[in-house]
Amino acid sequence: KAVVSTQSTGREVMSDTKPYAKLTGEWQSHSNTNLDALLQKLNVSFLVRKAASHAKTSQKIRFDGDKMIIVNDTGLKKKESIMMLDGTEFQNEMFQQVFVATAKIENGVIHVSGMLGNVKLTIAREVNTEGQMVLTTKADDVECVRVFNPKS
After folding, report:
1. Distance (Å, rounded) from C-alpha 99 to C-alpha 102?
2. Ordered per-residue pLDDT tens for the chain, 152 residues
3. Are 28 and 73 in contact, with CB atoms under 8 Å apart?
4. So what's the pLDDT on residue 19?
5. In Å, how far from its chain's centre is CA 67?
6. DSSP string, the chain
7. Strand pairing partners for 16?
8. Distance separating alpha carbons of residues 36 and 53, to the nearest angstrom
9. Whether the model pTM is above 0.85
10. Residues facing residue 47 across a β-bridge
């Protein structure tokens, strides 16, 4: 939050300067489309794919300067990932492979693009008009959409 002074009243008013800040908080998985196909494309084992399809994944997102920190909790495994939002290349481990990527912000949507092994992976994370976080992941030509509700 940044302090903005209004000239008409002289009062200071708090205002979000970063439109993606509404991603901050805890999110609980609600639905997904095409998750198994995405995981197959990423060469994830059958056992892990089945566990993922039944997991009630939660994500806790916070921001620290130009970093987005995500704690992903599947109930079986908890993992923290840090993404640089300033275009700096970063690395995260995903499915026992190294994901090398960069992130940028456009119109409040965080776009991540990189390589996971030999697969081009793109991820878009945004909050829709219903207040849900929509996570769209594309691995080459396979697209998966996961919807998360705010955790209560």
Report:
1. 10
2. 333 333 443 433 333 457 678 999 999 999 999 999 999 999 999 998 998 888 889 999 999 988 999 999 988 889 999 999 999 999 998 888 899 999 999 888 999 999 999 999 999 999 999 999 999 999 999 999 999 999 97
3. no
4. 64
5. 12
6. -EEEE-TTT--EEEE-S-GGGGG-EEEEEEEEESHHHHHHHTT--HHHHHHHHH---EEEEEEETTEEEEEEE-SS-EEEEEEESSS--EEEEETTEEEEEEEEEETTEEEEEEEETTEEEEEEEEE-TTS-EEEEEEETTEEEEEEEEEP-
7. none
8. 7
9. no
10. none
Nearest residue to 143 via CA among 134, 152, 132, 151: 134
pLDDT at 13: 33
Select from 63, 107, 102, 109 the least CA-distant residue to 86: 102
Q: Residue count of the chain, please give it.
A: 152
> In this structure, what token pair is assigned to residue 93?
């481990």
